[in-house]
């Protein structure tokens, strides 16, 4: 539609703003990769720390960030609606600055571990980043913009691995600190989300925000149409309007009448909104599929598998190549997500990534191919997974929900993701020691096949759709049929 036509200037402004917001994910990549190339130094007698780390310390070094994220994510939904998208994003960027400041001035093991736990609160802010980006992006390019969060994370991994391979400890820490400060500076230059401004009754500022991100005049028809769309999204009677879409009289009366002042809390609104509950279940199912397919665990243990497959190659080089593989795949996703759609990508990549883990399991169990085939399969699996499965759940977590519950539902989905990720990492090593890698990869494949089947029947296509149009997809089929018969 013409009102959603993206101008070149509008695309550039939205793109630059998206890169600034998703830069939090780049900082997250720095934090998660930093321990991997410092563990050997931290455990050696010549460590840069006051004393060598024990195996328990190393385990905490890699897991405390996840715990911080789990604790911080539930607060995102409340803070994002209290402070707004912009200032909430800046608030969640501060722990990264504090983390690298602490690490830069101390060599104490307890303080280093405390700093890594503190960093987890910043990584929780990715839920806010998703919401912020979804609300400043036009519907036709929303998927591509939101997918940059995952690309930015892998960019952070790549940058940190390169830093770790060629620079000394102190220089890397100071670079990470400088990059964290840059995030706050970039966000300070952006405008607030028009959806939040409309929620606060600041319609004039909302119009200015829309005009800024779309690079049109405040008085233009496009701004007027977008304001009307946001007003409809914020109407607490939207679900009734959607259910009454086949009764023109009822729908017109609902739209023309003055909307009542919203009095429900986010939890109350969620419990009474069947479309929001359906959307939440779908989003949680997609997130569970992504986490339980074992991609994070495979990345952690990739070095072990690479050492067996390509023993002559430096492990840091393998990590850099894997980060490049992940980054290229996620960037490709940003180009195809609004062309092929969320549903097709989720189903196809879940299926073919599961085929790869099945092949990888048989290779590990029976060694029917040369060792280098294991490395190739890991790269192919990682590429396929990150073209779709690794990205789609994050896109859905922000675009499926009405503004009234967007912060709450996005926080629930992200917190569930962190919790599942933490449990997966905790049980992975004991399970590997007990049954080996092969059965686990078979289990990952089963999860992927089940997830793909679920998406065939329950995941609606949302590409290019506005929030109210997406909600219409979650109205129960039984209600639609009843309305059509009446």
From TrEMBL:
Pfam families: Sugar_tr (PF00083). The keyword Metal-binding does not apply. Its main location: membrane. It is found in: Cell membrane. Keywords: Cell membrane, Membrane, Sugar transport, Transmembrane, Transmembrane helix, Transport. Residues 21-463 form the Major facilitator superfamily (MFS) profile domain. The chain crosses the membrane at residues 12-34, 54-80, 87-105, 111-133, 145-167, 173-190, 279-300, 320-337, 344-366, 372-396, 408-428, 440-459. InterPro entries: MFS_dom, MFS_sugar_transport-like, MFS_trans_sf, MFS_Trehalose_Transporter. GO terms for molecular function: transmembrane transporter activity. GO terms for cellular component: plasma membrane. It is a multi-pass membrane protein. PANTHER family: GH07001P-RELATED (PTHR48021:SF1), PTHR48021. This is Major facilitator superfamily (MFS) profile domain-containing protein. It comes from Helicoverpa armigera.
